[in-house]
Design a protein that fits this description.
With 343 residues, the protein is mostly helical. 70% of the residues lie in helices and 1% in strands. The chain is built from 16 helices and two strands. Helix 3 packs parallel to helix 10 (186-206), helix 4 (73-90) runs antiparallel to helix 14 (265-285) and helix 5 packs across helix 13. The termini are far apart.
Length: 343
Amino acid sequence: MTILLALAAGLVLGYLLERGDFCFHSTLRGLIRRPPQLNLLRAYLLTLLVAIPLVQGMIALGWITPWVAPWAWQANLVGGFIFGAGMVIAATCVTGIFYKLGHGMLGTLVGLATWSIGDLLAWRGPLNSLRIALNQNPVVTDGMSTTLLNLLGAPLGIGMLILLLAAAALFLWRSPRPQQGKYWSWLPLGLAVGLFTGFAWLLARAGGANYTFGTSRVPTTLFETLFNGGETGNLWIPVALIALLPGSFIAARLAGTFWARGETSGRYTQLAVGGLLMGVGAGISGGCNLGHSLVGVPLLSLGSITTTLAMLLGLFLTDRAAGLLDHLSPHLNRSATGATSPG
């Protein structure tokens, strides 16, 4: 039953991500582009606007008892920053690697491989000690993982949450409604992902899982199971993650967006380096854009919120550094040419 439910959940999420081309790299990087490209950010805000009340309501009613990511702020900041840098270099996120592979971007196999290596480095390799050190002594509140509500107290926390959601709703109300193209616009995308990520908690509970989606430690768990005889534990998250591939493939085939293709040698290098950094970053912070930003933020986890903000910082600084290098490259090339030319 667990495998069937996880398979269904992953298929639906993969379908939705592909139909909206919902890459978290593009979501955050759109903020700093000139001019800004905010359609995916609007979809993400609408996702939160729908998912937060749903998830918090189910918790209050006792329908779900989710695991909440700890607020190990050192690990959240360092891991999130590394992950954000990896997104810029790879020009995608971890979920993007999966659903883009499903719609034919075969070069993401390189990113998938190095992401797995990065995960192993963080959980079992030379970076394991750093990960452990950064995750020691997480901040707890009343003996539980810290959330926005238990940190501020119910009245203040709920009041602040209502204000934030109202501001997001006002922003979205005043946003343009783009025409439907080959991919969904932000309005149907945000509604669909928000509703489904809320509903997925009930599927996860029925499947015996206390979390819906994530990528961190999945490669390490599979490695330990295959080669070290480790226990598989609950298979919900690995099966749901793998099911993103056929889900996105079905969506791409039905919508006519499937296109099998390779990449240039430069893109393979970018995907390899970026995938490695995302695997390391997610391992250190205990989650990726899927586990933290799409699942953990609706739980109001301070660990997930901190990691998401650190991703944005890492993305911003890496983007600016890349832009500076691109600007300096012609000058450096001209200087080198002038230095070696005769006469």
